[in-house]
């Protein structure tokens, strides 16, 4: 039988990490595990190594997240500070990773003279978090990286 190849992780994986510092309200108990990927490839490698039934909690800037004192039984994945690449893809398209702060994308749009994203300047969250909340971003035709789990938007 062929040996399974495991890609070494470059990000930080820790056990029993309090989630309070990762939320704006600074409350909340520990996650069983917390992973902070170094980049998108690292995140994909990590996800591929997880059991299919592992509960995942995606965390952006934590501005719209309340964690109970009992914490989270599963793996929390923090994208802010990790998946932060963004670029102009075409005349009308910006591409952003899930951890990009909304205000940064608004600034990029302004710099690139693209209209329609000015409202994002006041949103205190990441693209992934905002997308999760189904804001007007879809209308703005922002492209999202799709992560390999059904519910994982970015
Ligand atoms: C003071 C304040 C002002 C605001 N003003 C505006 C406004 O003017 N206009 C507006 O549209 N919105 C506004 N919002 C809402 C804002 O859009 C969200 O709070 C923010 O986008 C959430 O992003 P976050 O990175 O902080 O998400 P988090 O708080 O980290 O997460 C929020 C939810 O999204 C999930 N999530 C996070 N990242 C991902 C991901 N990559 N994939 C899948 N799920 C994910 C989390 O699991 C959680 O369920 C405001 C919020 C606050 C607190």
Describe, in plain words, how this protein is organized in 3D.
With 154 residues, the protein is an alpha/beta fold. It folds into 2 domains: 12-78, Uridine Diphospho-n-acetylenolpyruvylglucosamine Reductase, domain 2 (2-Layer Sandwich), CATH 3.30.43; 86-133, no CATH class. It is 16% helix and 23% strand. It has 3 helices and 7 strands. The strands form 2 sheets. A 4-stranded mixed β-sheet has the order 1-2-4-3, with no helix packed on it. Strand 5 and strand 6 (93-96) form a beta hairpin. It binds flavin-adenine dinucleotide. Flavin-adenine dinucleotide binds next to strand 3 and helix 3.
Give the helix/strand layout.
Elements: E1 12-18, E2 30-36, H1 40-48, E3 56-59, E4 72-78, E5 86-90, E6 93-96, H2 102-111, H3 127-132, E7 143-144
Parallel strand pairs: 2-4, 3-4, 6-7
Antiparallel strand pairs: 1-2, 5-6
The chain binds flavin-adenine dinucleotide.
Flavin-adenine dinucleotide (FAD) binds at residues 57-65, 79, 98, 122-126, 128-130, 132-133, 135, 152-154.
Alpha plus pi helix count: 3
DSSP strand count? 7
Largest sheet strand order: 1-2-4-3
Hey, roughly how much beta strand do the residues contain? Answer: 15-25%
